[in-house]
């Protein structure tokens, strides 16, 4: 069953690719900011059509990646753990989001001391916080998240630079609850052998994505427990999900992918 969600998004008004901090980004390839804005708006509309609430934050000139709201906060039970970016080009984003939370009246806002790219590398299953490391978020940030948010954290190691954030390789389809375990979709090859074993143990019934699904950033999906927003090209994944009773909703995110992003990257979940 779907559950109502609250999301924070940032319109890509200043979106461009002017530096390269992941293998998807090529500053030599032109970016159509208007098209990115149209794709982002379609994503926002899709959430609202599903009955979800979307809050927005003002984008800032000179911060072209600020559209990727997922990277700037992890919110569980109304507690906020902010971000500390690895790349200096993105560092200033963290404080804009911190101020947004304070302006909205969030009282429990902690800024991390370790490198922490928030929901880029953290996925909440309803009882565990899955935490990626290897390219961006430091392992010390996992321990910090456990301490600040007061939830158990499971560390997972990413090994393929194309899948530099956890949310490019795994997403939660249904949170655990009412005695039922959480379900997830992931691309095993993005993880170290040990982390693959952890994932198999935690999620024996997971949806296993193909290399093609991963290569269009198909794992950068957003699920409300029934409706699953994912990039248009992730066809096999959409079929698998439909087969399991989910409702896949394809969204074109071609412009945002030029920066290594997809639907989830543009979406921070505000869990009260
Ligand atoms: N260009 C951005 C970066 O490399 C993309 C971030 C995408 N966000 C995400 N949650 N995976 O940092």
Explained architecture:
Helix content is 25%, strand content 20%. By secondary structure, the chain is α/β, with parallel strands linked by helices. The strands form five sheets. Strands 2-1-15 form a three-stranded mixed beta sheet, covered by helices on one side. Strands 3-4-5 form a three-stranded mixed beta sheet, with helices on both faces. Helix 6 links the parallel strand 13 and strand 14. The two termini are 19 Å apart. The structure holds arginine.
Indicate the CATH topology. L-arginine/glycine Amidinotransferase, Chain A
Q: Distance N terminus to C terminus?
A: 19 Å
Strand-residue fraction?
15-25%
Name the ligand types.
arginine
Helix and strand pattern: EHEEEHEEEHEEEHEHEEHEHE
Tell me about the biggest sheet?
3 strands, mixed
Task: Decide which structural class fits the backbone.
Answer: alpha/beta
Shape: globular
Short description:
This protein has 272 residues and is of the alpha/beta class. The protein has helices at 33-49, 93-103, 139-149, 193-202, 211-215, 235-243, 254-257; strands at 6-9, 53-56, 74-76, 79-81, 109-110, 122-124, 129-133, 153-157, 170-174, 183-186, 207-208, 222-223, 227-231, 247-251, 268-269.
SSE diagram, text form:
Layout: E1 6-9, H1 33-49, E2 53-56, E3 74-76, E4 79-81, H2 93-103, E5 109-110, E6 122-124, E7 129-133, H3 139-149, E8 153-157, E9 170-174, E10 183-186, H4 193-202, E11 207-208, H5 211-215, E12 222-223, E13 227-231, H6 235-243, E14 247-251, H7 254-257, E15 268-269
Parallel strand pairs: 1-2, 4-5, 7-8, 10-11, 13-14
Antiparallel strand pairs: 1-15, 3-4, 6-7, 9-10, 12-13
């Amino acid at each position: 069953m779907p559950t109502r969600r609250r999301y924070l998004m940032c319109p890509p008004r200043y979106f461009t690719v002017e530096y390269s901090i992941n293998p998807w980004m090529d500053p030599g390839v032109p970016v159509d900011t208007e098209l990115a804005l149209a794709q982002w708006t379609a994503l926002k509309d899709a959430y609202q059509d599903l009955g979800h609430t979307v809050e927005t934050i003002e984008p800032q000139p000179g911060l072209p990646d600020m559209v990727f709201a997922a990277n700037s906060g992890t919110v569980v039970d109304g507690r906020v753990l902010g971000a500390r970016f690895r790349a200096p080009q993105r560092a200033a984003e963290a404080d804009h989001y911190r101020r947004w939370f304070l302006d909205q009246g969030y009282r429990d806002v902690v800024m991390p001391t370790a490198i922490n790219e928030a929901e880029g590398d953290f996925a909440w299953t309803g009882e565990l916080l899955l935490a990626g490391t290897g390219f961006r978020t430091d392992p010390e940030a996992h321990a910090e998240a456990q301490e600040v948010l007061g939830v158990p954290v499971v560390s997972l190691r990413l090994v393929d630079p194309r899948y530099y954030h956890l949310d490019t390789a795994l997403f939660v389809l249904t949170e655990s609850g009412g005695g039922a375990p959480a379900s997830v979709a992931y691309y095993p090859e993005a993880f170290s052998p040990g982390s693959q074993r952890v994932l198999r143990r935690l999620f024996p019934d997971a949806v296993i994505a193909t290399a093609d699904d991963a290569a269009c950033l198909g794992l950068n999906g957003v699920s409300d427990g029934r409706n699953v927003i994912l990039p248009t090209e992730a066809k096999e994944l959409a079929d698998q999900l439909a087969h399991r009773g989910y409702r896949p909703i394809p969204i074109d995110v071609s412009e945002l992918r030029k920066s290594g992003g997809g639907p989830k990257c543009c979406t921070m979940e505000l869990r009260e």
